[in-house]
Amino acid sequence: MTLQDLQFALELGCVMGKDIDAILEYSQENGIDTEKIDTMLEELGYDKIFENDFDDYDDDEYGYIEKFPHKNRFYED
Is 55 helix (H, G, I), strand (E, B) or coil? Predict the structure, then answer.
């Protein structure tokens, strides 16, 4: 990820310009660490941008759909 990519992601996350400048300055000095940037954003009152919480999502409440092939096939049992 480059600094331009970071700036674009922060702009999409609706981060104010002065906060974007501070984060870009920090990232230029220390490197781009997305976990640290998310922590900084939370301290500033923003939501996390780079970390997703999809791993905690329990998908068991939804059933699975089995698709049927569109061609007929012969299956031996």
Answer: helix
Count of the separate structural domains present in the chain? 1
pLDDT tens readout for residues 18-75: 999 999 999 999 999 999 999 999 999 998 888 865 555 555 566 666 666 566 666 6
Whole-structure pTM value? 0.65
The verdict on residue 44 lying in a domain is yes
d(CA 1, CA 6): 7
Cβ-proximal residues to 50 (8 Å cutoff; 6+ apart), any chain: 9, 34, 35, 37, 38
